[in-house]
Amino acid sequence: MYVDPVNPNVVTTACGADDGRMIKWYRTTDYGETWAVANDTSMAGNPWGFSLDPNPNRNRCTPPTIYSPAGYGSLGAWKSTDGGVTWARLTGADTAFADYNPFGKALTDLYHVAILPDDPPNHVLVTYHYYFKDVPDGGFGETWDGGQTWVVHPPPPGIGTSHYVIGISGTTWCVIAQSNNGANGIWRTTTAGRVGGTAAKKYRDGMISTSAWTRVSAQEHPHGSYGSLKIGAAWYSPAASSIWKSVDDGATWTDLAPGYYWPSPPSHMFLNKNVSGLAATQSYIYSNYFTGPDLARAPVGQDTNWQRDYAPVPAALQGFGAEPFGNASTLHAPSGKWLLFMGTNNGVWRFIEP
């Protein structure tokens, strides 16, 4: 779920399934008061980690570019240049991944299609759902011309599968693997996955190499949903183990809730550490719990003081196993209040910060 960075009243979300149904793209233009289907006929499956153009300098009259995978359905990488109304498959990605696809050259099973911050929406890094052919790990694909041409980055041994991207910069990337008891974790490159080359050319004059990656953390994400967060110079990462923070561009990570498995009734944190998404307002950082309606927040500047009792969970979510699949926040200009959105298996929910 994403707020348009140049139109804070516009929020985009997607609904998919693992049974091959068509993906429905929903959009609101009035801060969530009403929603409309932008498209539900282009591709089928699960949108997993889709990305919306984060460029704050885009012409506000130009719809944002969106990239999406289509897992358990159409597969491949897809692109929309009109805010999700129409979609085209990026066949160059299929060509690039053909020799790496384990179940057939045309079966390109991607997971996160991440727009990198140096040249949005043209520079994109994609991750693979599960593993490459003949190896137990999943690698990556990169395009810097909006999806026309691609290069493939083979996976370093032990990097894991089903990664989400933490795009620190155009050349510094972190990727976090799906939960595997800490065996895979977060890996980092500061040279765009290459050795040799020059920073002036974004290391594209170097050679793609698995040796360009270093494992920096054991934290992993719960499979299916993930959303990192940047506040100032700090990066925050939800994980299957806790919420983590880095202040050195992902080189090291600090556990913000060490040692907690929450008491009952809880006074801090959340019932379980499977956190899948984060969002922030001017005052608070908000988190969710992957397989239920447990919510928590911490004041910005006091990010080890997480509390669950800031708002009652709606009755419609209690006991439902709500599985929040995306968080977003935006400032409501008419009232001056912050709005928090969470997508779940039971609809989209909105919280108005007092």
Quick gist of this model?
The chain has 354 residues and is mainly β. Helices cover 2% and strands 33% of the residues.
Order of strands across the main sheet: 1-2-3-4
- Binned, the helix content reads under 10%
The total beta strand count reads 28
- Just name the CATH architecture of the largest domain: 7 Propeller
SSE pattern, N- to C-terminal: EEEEEEEEHEEEEEEEEEEEEEEEEEEEE
As for the number of domains, it is 2
- The CATH topology annotation of the largest domain reads as Methylamine Dehydrogenase, Chain H
Descriptive labels:
354 residues; mainly beta; 2 domains
How is this structure best described in words?
- It is a single chain.
- This protein has 354 residues and is mainly beta.
- It has two domains: 2-255, YVTN repeat-like/Quinoprotein amine dehydrogenase (Methylamine Dehydrogenase, Chain H); 256-354, no CATH class.
- It has one helix and 28 strands.
- The strands form eight sheets. A four-stranded antiparallel beta sheet has the order 1-2-3-4, with no helix packed on it. A four-stranded antiparallel beta sheet has the order 5-6-7-8. Strands 9-10-11-12 form a four-stranded antiparallel beta sheet, with helices on one face.
